[in-house]
Each structure stands twice: as C-alpha cells, then as structure tokens.
Design a protein that fits this description.
single chain
Length: 307
C-alpha cells in the first residue's frame, strides 16, 4: 500500500493528507439546517450533516491530494449514526480515488488487537461470507503495549497489502511527559522509532519503503530530523501543520533527499478554512472552495520548503 501512496504523491506533487475531522462548529449553518430538517436535531441529524460536509470537501480536493485521514473520534461521539458516517466517508473517499488513513490509534494485545486490525484493515468471515468492515488503506496504531499490540497489524499489512503509522512522537504539547523520558540515555520516542524500524523490516514494499510508518509531529522539527535517520525506510505521517503551529520550513528533515518519506496532515486548517480571515471572501456557502484554496496554499508552502 505504501507503494500506491508514493505513486499518488508523485502524481499530485502533494505530500499532503487532508484530515477529515469534522466538528459541528466547522459545518455551515445551512448544511446543518438541511440535515436537521430531514433527520431532526438528533444523532442521525448530526451524522447526516457531517457526511454532507465531508462529501463537499472531498469533491473539492480529490484531484489535489493523494489521501485523507478521518479521525474516528469525531464520528464516534455521535454513536452508531456517527460510525455509519465514518464508514460512508471512507467508502466515498475510496470511490473518488483517494487513499484513506484511518486515524483510529488502536493498540491492545492478542485477539483484541487482531480484531482491531481486521476491522480497519482486514476482513472478517461470517459463515460462508467475507466482509471488509471499514476498509481503510492505513491505520494509526498506539505502540505502548509493545510488540504484542503491533504484530497483529503488521500481519494484516502483509496479508492484505495495507499499511500502518505507529505513534512515535506526537504533536501535542504534553507529549514529552512520557515520550521524551530518557531510558538508557535515549528518549523513549527514539526507542519506539527503533522498534518501528524493526517491525517494518517484516513488511517491506517493492518500492523499498516499509508498510510500517511512524507518526511524528511537525511541531518538533529536530526530533523529525533524528527520527528520519532512525527509521530510514519508514514513511512519516506528520500532524501539527497549520493550526498547531507547524510550517513548511519545519518539515525539511522529515523528507529524504528525493523529497519522499513523509506525508503532512492538515485538518481544521483545510476543512474549516472558510472560517479563517484569509479565506473569508469565500463565505459560508463557499466552504468547499475555501478548502481547495487552503490545500493549494499548503502545497505551495511545502514545495518551497523541500525543493
């Protein structure tokens, strides 16, 4: 799957993933009113508004970027209707030719981790039938239960041609409370990066890159430089661009000399661009066009930095 991601990055010239992390506050009133008119001010109404919003954003940016990243918590908060909206969003994005990174941050042990991996990346059998429950192409994985929690995902990557991104150094301010702690003279994130490299050796793609990637925040550029060296064959999913303070110039060391090796996420900086002063001229009705403009600006910023 990482080979397909590389192909799409080269085709679009955009190492960008759009985070589909909808909040009701990001959705124009007219979209919500229409959804509530059909379904009421209910969980179903909220899910309907989210799906309508997502589809418009996807239609506007699908030709510009290789991938999207829906964050499942933004859907789970609306219960079963929200999960249906998540599933329908994944399906819609795949029909549009986009790769989907399920931001699910799963991680457990044994059969539980195996069930998570099957749900998001694999298949399940029901009697004589086999189903793909959610059908993402990649998933984010929490490594803090160790190899027991990650191996089922690696196995699915190998058997189903999928990929994962393991949390190594996250973009949030308090990440250092644990991730920066020194163990035998090395930060914990460094040790996790070494494990990512080890796990990745079991799942190498023909492209020369591993199906086991890493999550490293744009807010820590020097850490990104170090971890690029620790994990030379692992793609890095980079959150923290835009709204969290990361800029194009912070991303240089996340990429290799060929300009590959990383894909940068922006969520509310794109999907809620219409609420920003820079894109206010698009107005509420032009929210999807504002998202497209934000992607084009992000593409130019990153290209200028890594050339």
């Amino acid at each position: 799957m990482i080979g397909r991601l590389i192909e799409r990055i080269r085709e679009t010239q955009a190492p960008i993933v759009v985070g589909l992390d909808p909040q009701l506050g990001f959705i124009p009133d007219a979209v919500k009113a229409e959804a509530y008119g059909r379904c009421g001010e209910t969980l179903e109404g909220a899910a309907e508004a989210i799906l309508t919003f997502n589809k418009a954003i996807v239609d506007a940016v699908a030709d510009l970027v290789p991938a999207v990243k829906p964050q499942i918590a933004m859907y789970e908060q609306f219960g079963i209707p929200g999960l249906k909206a998540f599933s329908e969003t994944v399906s819609y994005c795949r029909k549009k030719g986009l790769l989907v990174i399920g931001d699910v941050k799963r991680g457990d042990i044994g059969s539980t981790s195996g069930a998570y991996a099957a749900a998001h990346l694999g298949t399940v059998r029901v009697g004589a039938n086999e189903y793909e429950p959610f059908g993402e192409d990649f998933a984010t994985v929490n490594p803090y239960l160790g190899t027991d929690g990650v191996k089922p995902f690696v196995d699915i990557c190998k058997s189903h041609g999928k990929g994962i991104f393991v949390l190594v150094k996250t973009s949030n301010p308090s990440s250092g409370e644990f991730q920066d702690r020194l163990i035998d003279g090395k930060p914990l994130y460094h040790l996790v990066g070494e494990k990512v490299r080890e796990w990745g050796e079991e799942a190498m793609d023909e492209s020369g890159w591993s199906e086991v990637g890493a999550v490293v925040g744009a807010t820590y550029p020097e850490t990104g430089r170090l971890l690029r060296e620790v994990m030379p064959k692992s793609f890095i999913l980079v959150p923290g661009y835009g709204a969290q303070g990361g800029t194009g110039k912070d991303l240089v060391h996340f990429f290799d000399r060929d300009g590959l090796g990383a894909i940068v996420n922006s969520s509310r900086g794109i999907i809620a661009a219409w609420q920003k002063e820079a894109y206010a001229s698009y107005g509420e009705a032009g929210y999807a066009d504002a998202a497209r403009a934000a992607v084009l600006d992000m593409k130019a910023d990153i290209a200028q930095a890594i050339l």
